[in-house]
Amino acid sequence: APWRATVLTLYPEMFPGPLGHSLSGDALTRGTWSLEPRQIREHGLGRHRSVDDTPAGGGAGMVLRCDVLGAAIDAAAPPDDARPRLLMSPRGRPLTQARVRALAEGPGAILVCGRFEGVDERVIEARALEEVSIGDYVLSGGEIAALVLIDACVRLLPGVMGKHASGVEESFEGGLLEYPHYTRPREWEGRTIPDVLMGGNHAAIARWRAERSHALTRARRPDLLDGEEP
Ligand code: SAM
């Protein structure tokens, strides 16, 4: 069965968007994964299909209603749907490559995209939504975050990356940032490819890459090295 992404959003026309191109687009066409954007407003209230209201206790902005979002979730995913229910949220646990890999190995995901000031807390509790953040910054809506999460998962699905099959050497997979890459021409604007990469000594190349990975990680992301020997 294909990996299934169901996205609850006020802007279903944003999907597949960039995911309709390149590797993810080809895989979507081939049926390796499927995408179902669902319009939350279909469950909106009254003539105007209203989905939000002012925050209890006052303050700026609007809040997505729990009854509307609850109905949208129930219509999109029956209780026996085994897929995790994720709410894109800057308050969530930050998304990691390990979590992406676990999601890609499962049946898919149900992604809820917030807008405005966020969603009524009660629907998060009642529908057991897991809040997921894509980083420590605030987006205007969850759609781009959902696209990011789906892209990261889809490229790991069997057959999507072709000869880069496992992606095991990439940044984060080994706990480190990836080493630098080079390709032709050998010299460009006075800069040459490091000699070791041109020498054909595979052990020496592996050592050089490991050393560069460590140096980059130490300089940019020392948090990734916590607990590791220098
Ligand atoms: N008032 C909220 C807060 O401070 O936590 C921010 C709401 S934000 C303007 C609107 C929506 O964008 C959120 O409900 C969420 O779905 C999405 N969003 C914003 N930043 C995000 C992030 N870093 N990761 C995932 N989703 C995000």
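^ S-adenosylmethionine complex. The beta strands are 3-9, 33-39, 52-53, 63-64, 85-94, 108-113, 130-133, 187-188, 191-192. The first helix runs from residue 22 to 30.
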